[in-house]
Automatic annotation (TrEMBL):
Keyword Lyase set for record: yes
One Pfam family from the record: GDP_Man_Dehyd
Gene source species: Rhizobium lusitanum
Lineage: Bacteria, Pseudomonadati, Pseudomonadota, Alphaproteobacteria, Hyphomicrobiales
A single GO BP: nucleotide-sugar metabolic process
Cofactor(s) needed: NAD(+)
UniProt cross-references to NCBIfam families, sorted A to Z: dTDP_gluc_dehyt
Protein name per its UniProtKB record: dTDP-glucose 4,6-dehydratase
Any one GO MF annotation of this record: dTDP-glucose 4,6-dehydratase activity
Reactions that this protein is recorded to catalyse: dTDP-alpha-D-glucose = dTDP-4-dehydro-6-deoxy-alpha-D-glucose + H2O
Annotated ranges, domain NAD(P)-binding: 4-324
Family statement: Belongs to the NAD(P)-dependent epimerase/dehydratase family. dTDP-glucose dehydratase subfamily.
């Protein structure tokens, strides 16, 4: 048996591929475009493993995807491929439309053609699982109930709008063509192999480098934090037993203001890697201008996933963030390999402070 994973060299996709092959021997065909956030170093431990076949390519390349589907005959396709950073979508929305909307459309069409050609006894077992985000639901006030699967879509950034569009395409391909789809909408992920433009890895990297820790606005934006390996286990469970055509929200039940997250990281670093001069890492915090249209709060109601499929996260934020920091402290070679000159130029432009 075989699955095809798109975006499997990125943060969540890479963790999923590694976890999948730790769980069993089912082969993975891994299709990734290797943009700045795709990193083969994440998959270095799979070198020489015949259960993992890496293909450098784009989900929008219909001919390539058709060939992969025909050659490998996967029983499922899991789509992680996406441009995913809100800040980058503000500066350059075109890439997000191309990958998240047009790319998803081309992938769906290739998968539909493959599925249509399957023998009758194989068609019911096939699945297309689309991995999406809680940002499609918009923003919440402090007292609002968390997002559930019936919340209407109200995306507020080019990134979230492009992901909302892809979710709608997946839904339409199920209702119009019968394609057996599943969709998951997750909260903010964190953990190993996270490209250091996002809050948690950026803070860890900058703290260790003696640089400023940039915090947007007042730092009181609230997010629900989900340890990436918990997210991977949720996706495996949805693929295994989710009801076709359904959406499942995946959350960590860990709502935290950004400033509290940064303070927690600093406190753990003070413990695990104390500074030689005796100062605290939190002294490096620098508040910077808030980004345009910054959503104030996200929160996920993951009770449907627990009720129907028996899934709930194993990690609390306290246990997950410690594991994450310990991973970064022990894998500085990976960090150095991904922090190229282009990355440093991006961060300097984005936060407008001396990093």
């Amino acid at each position: 048996m075989t699955i095809l994973v798109s975006g499997g060299a990125g943060f969540i996709g890479g963790n999923f591929v590694l976890d999948w092959l730790r769980q069993g021997d089912e082969r993975v065909i891994n299709l990734d475009k290797l943009t700045y956030a795709g990193n083969l170093d994440t998959l270095r431990g799979l070198n020489g493993d015949n259960r993992h076949v890496f293909v450098h390519g784009d989900i929008g390349d219909r001919g390539l995807v058709d060939t992969l589907l025909a050659t490998h005959q996967p029983r499922a396709v899991i789509n992680f491929a996406a441009e995913s950073h809100v800040d980058r979508s503000i500066h350059g929305p075109g890439d997000f439309i191309q990958t998240n909307v047009v790319g998803t459309f081309n992938l769906l069409e290739a998968v539909r053609g493959h599925w249509d050609g399957l023998p009758g006894d194989e068609k019911p077992a096939f699945r297309f699982l689309h991995v999406s985000t809680d940002e499609v639901y918009g923003t919440l006030s402090k007292d609002d109930a968390p997002f559930n699967e019936l919340n209407r879509y109200e995306p507020n950034s080019p990134y979230s709008a492009s992901k909302a569009a892809s979710d709608h395409l997946v839904r339409a391909w199920h209702h119009t063509y019968g394609l057996p789809v599943l969709t998951t909408n997750c909260s903010n992920n964190y953990g190993p192999y996270h490209f250091p433009e996002k809050l948690i890895p950026l803070v860890i990297l900058n703290a260790l480098s003696g640089k400023n820790l940039p915090i947007y606005g007042d730092g009181q934006q609230i997010r629900d934090w989900l340890y990436v390996r918990d997210h991977c286990s949720a996706i495996r469970r949805v693929l295994e037993a989710g009801r076709v055509g359904e959406t499942y929200n995946v959350g960590g039940w860990n709502e935290k203001p950004n400033l509290d997250v940064v303070h927690t990281i600093c406190a753990i670093l003070d413990e695990l890697r104390p500074k030689a001069d005796g100062t605290r890492y939190r002294d490096q915090i620098a508040f910077v201008k808030d980004r345009p249209g910054h959503d104030r709060r996200y929160a996920i109601d993951a009770r449907k996933l627990e009720r129907e499929l028996g899934w709930k996260p194993e990690e609390t934020f306290e246990t997950g963030i410690r594991k994450t920091i310990e991973w970064y402290l022990g894998n500085q070679d990976w960090v150095q390999n991904v922090t190229s000159g282009a990355y440093r130029e991006w961060v300097g432009k984005q936060y407008e402070v001396q990093l």
